[in-house]
Design brief:
28% helix; two-stranded antiparallel sheet; rod-shaped; alpha/beta
């Protein structure tokens, strides 16, 4: 994480280095008075006090480098292992300043990226004091966590596109053939049958045999007489 903008006001009240002690704590304080009065006090060599940072609603002052030991906590062992942060204002009696909380969360997130093993503590956990009043340390720590590890965005579920089936083509109407009129032929009237003319059969006269013989004899006799005359 990148270092936030810092207004550098280096205090003479410090010990160079940390005597080989790693940073284990981030200690929370409040200034009670204004941030500028705290800066002036830290820049005064005769005050014998300092802090690494002072947080205001609009800026962060840096008075001691984090590689060095600030004179803040009232116990030397605690100073060696701590990065100390003063918060502008008297955080007692319901005082609240959102700008200070937001600036502090940015600073704490950056310090935690440098010292991931560090844990929070209040000044009153080290010595008998009311400091840092009602400063919401847990809120600042949690906001710093969100800055360090922002929640993953909720994936946007894109619904599957609804495939509208292509309507089946409307078939061309099948032409209905014009019915061929059925011509019923006129009934054929057969001509009346022509009756053939009656066959007239001449009657055959059947003569008796005796008569036939007589006629033959007479015809022969006529012939003989005819030839004799000739």
């Amino acid at each position: 994480m990148n270092q936030p903008p810092l207004d550098i006001r280096i205090s003479p009240n410090k010990t160079y280095g940390r005597q080989g002690t790693p940073v284990r704590k981030i200690t929370f304080h409040h200034t009670v008075a204004s941030a500028l009065s705290a800066v002036q006090r830290f820049l005064n060599p005769s005050s014998g006090t300092s802090a690494h940072f002072i947080v205001t609603p609009s800026k962060i002052y840096c008075c001691v480098d984090t590689d060095d030991t600030a004179w803040t906590n009232g116990k030397w062992a605690s100073n060696l292992e701590s990065v100390t942060i003063e918060h502008e204002g008297d955080w007692r009696f319901g005082y609240y300043n959102q700008g200070v909380i937001d600036q502090s969360a940015i600073l704490v997130a950056w310090l935690r990226s440098l010292y991931p093993e560090a844990t929070p503590n209040r000044h009153r956990e080290i010595v008998a004091t009311a400091c840092p009043g009602d400063l919401p340390v847990e809120l600042i720590w949690n906001k710093a966590t969100e800055i360090l590890y922002p929640p993953l965005p909720v994936p946007v579920v894109v619904p599957e596109p609804v495939v509208v089936p292509t309507p089946a083509p409307i078939p061309e109407p099948i032409p209905v053939p014009t019915p061929v009129p059925i011509v019923i032929p006129e009934p054929v009237v057969a001509p009346p049958p022509v009756e053939p003319p009656p066959i007239i059969v001449e009657p055959i006269i059947v003569l008796p045999i005796a008569l036939k013989r007589s006629i033959i004899v007479m015809f022969i006799e006529w012939l003989i007489k005819f030839f004799k005359k000739g």
